[in-house]
Design brief:
Blueprint lengths: L7 E4 L12 E6 L5 E2 L4 E7 L3 E5 L4 E6 L2 H4 L3 H4 L8 E5 L11 H8 L2
Antiparallel strand pairs: 1-7, 2-4, 3-6, 4-5, 6-7
Length: 112
């Protein structure tokens, strides 16, 4: 991409519209090479009760998709801040990272 950064950010399972304790049964993500935009859907996760969109936290290009989740979607619940990363994104605007919450800030936001 023209003028893009070489930094990559992993998108993680964190949707305020989906219950934190739901059991993920499947997930789908955008393919490598796809452009994503901050705040726009980049995939979805299905639980026993609902299907929820996953929103991109940043703008850029998907450079890798976590294939582990296709075979083991329950990892989204078991290890959301570790093995259950969704996609890696080559950032178009690294300054967007400054507006994101840390895992601890997100837990506090959710009241946990």
């Amino acid at each position: 991409m023209n003028g893009s950064s070489s930094r990559a950010a992993p998108a993680r399972w964190a949707s305020p519209t989906t219950p934190r304790k739901s059991s993920a049964t499947s997930s789908s993500s955008t393919c490598p090479g796809a452009a994503v935009e901050a705040g726009k859907p980049l995939g979805s996760v299905e639980s026993v009760k609902a299907v929820s969109d996953i929103y991109s936290p940043v703008t850029g290009e998907v450079i890798e998709v976590n294939e582990l989740l296709a075979a083991a979607p329950e990892k989204l619940n078991e290890d959301p801040h570790g093995a259950a990363w969704l996609v890696r994104i080559r950032l178009s605007n690294p300054a967007e990272l400054d507006g994101l919450m840390s895992a601890a800030e997100y837990e506090a936001y959710l009241g946990g």
